[in-house]
Design a protein that fits this description.
single chain, alpha/beta, 8 strands, 32% helix
Length: 216
């Protein structure tokens, strides 16, 4: 099982994104997690294509782009051009999810599907075999620094069961309230990728904090 850490740049200092990128590049984190929010699907506005393009130029690591926007299918090609490697859309925001995932893969990216805390795992059953990643939101999306929803552990385990039953090789990612205290439990439940924002960028030593998450 993979133990991938994807630091969330939503928690980085926006005045020092270059420095934050350098720190993550020097760490054992394999991915950059970029949250794109539109103020409609979620009650917050973050950043968009220019920041994705800028960070693409600052790293050779995987750009893990999480779209928290309505009608994400409109921007598939734009995010591929900006440099995204993984593009994750929400099941709640994509009316024609199968078509959107196919468009992401046709564009040359890996396709992810995100589930809000209230959305059951069965919502992705019909696309589990074509998804490259299932993202379990362990907080309500929109803001960093929230408390981990404990029931997410069971949801991760149920997602793992679904993927095994469907013979899907999709990764399981968890986003929200991840820290050194719950990382081991999440990996044990079946998670492959942990998104960590404050646990990394608010730490005195982000490189060490990333290592602690991997070693949890």
């Amino acid at each position: 099982m993979a133990r991938i850490i994807s630091p969330s740049f939503l928690s980085a200092d926006f005045l020092r994104l270059g420095e934050s990128a350098r720190v993550v590049n020097e760490s054992r984190a394999e991915w950059f997690h970029l949250d794109v929010m539109d103020g409609v699907f979620v009650p917050n506005i973050s950043f968009g294509l220019p920041v994705v393009r800028a960070l693409r130029g600052a790293t050779e690591k995987v750009l893990d782009v999480h779209l928290m926007i309505v009608q994400p299918e409109r921007y598939v090609d734009d995010f591929r051009t900006a440099g995204a490697d993984y593009l994750t859309v929400h099941v709640e925001a994509s009316t024609h999810l199968h078509r959107t995932l196919q468009a992401i893969r046709d564009a040359g990216m890996r396709a992810g599907v995100a589930l809000n805390p209230h959305t059951p795992v069965c919502a992705v059953e019909e696309v589990a075999e074509m998804a490259d990643m299932i993202l379990i939101m362990s907080v309500n999306p929109g803001f960093g620094g929230q408390k981990f929803i404990a029931s997410s552990l069971d949801k991760v385990a149920r997602t793992k069961e679904l993927l095994l039953r469907k013979n899907s090789s999709a990764l399981i990612q968890v986003d929200g309230g991840v820290n050194a205290e719950n990382a081991a439990q999440l990996f044990a439940a079946g998670a492959d990728v942990l998104v960590a924002g404050n646990a990394v960028f608010a730490a005195e030593d982000p490189v060490k904090a990333i290592q602690q998450l991997i070693d949890a």
